[in-house]
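Hey Z.,

So I finally got round to the manganese (II) ion thing we talked about over coffee. Here's the setup:
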Amino acid sequence: MAQRTRMLADITWPEVREAIDRGAGVFLPVGSTEQHGYHLPLATDVILPTELALAVADELDFLVAPPVAYGYRSRPLSGGGQGFVGTTSLQARTLMSLVEDVLGELIRQGFERIAVVNWHFENQNFVYEAAYLAIERHRDTPARILVAEHPFAELSEETMEALFPEGFPGWDYEHASIMETSLMLHLRPELVLFDRAVDDASKRHPWYDVVPAPEDFVPASGTLWKATQASAEKGEITWREIVGQFREAVLAEFARSGVASERGARPS
Ligand code: MN
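And the result:
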């Protein structure tokens, strides 16, 4: 049966029952509430993984659980740090407990194909640990959890060139910068104040970190690199590749006859 919507919390419990009974999977997007410069919303890290999950949910028959809207502490060299209003973060143990509990609930209900889709850089190992603990607690179920700590792997040379014609600084700089701004311009342009976007950088960006954060690790705007070079077109090219990679990853781990034959029956 066609789903009215893929958002798990927007449907009724009998519809969830039906989805579980036919073997539907479930995505758990994990993000943050974090400053993203003068021009992007605080929810950027929540919006992008949720859009990614929704982009493949129909085809792969997944529901999308309510996203985790808070993440681990923003770090100065990858997210601008905790010094901006709006940035509202969790301690690592709170995030791990939250994600572990939600995953445990999804397993208890009978979901067997589960994928965590994380966008916020700082959450990486913590969502893995949460998945590990949830499975450890439910050894008696056949559930498996795909943990996408990064929303994508390497992008093609073609996409990298389109995104970063002046050179690629490294993914840790990619916060409220070219890629995230381009993706938001493509997916949710109504939320982007593009005329306020700036190119910025911290005075220092060493390979190590320091606690408490030195002031010169933090750019004034909260944008860590060049946001003005973003465009909706770059966003579209990049998004197509990210969705393709994610789709392949989920298919590779959770291929099942139903999905495969449905896809085979459909002209592509
Ligand atoms: Mn982030």
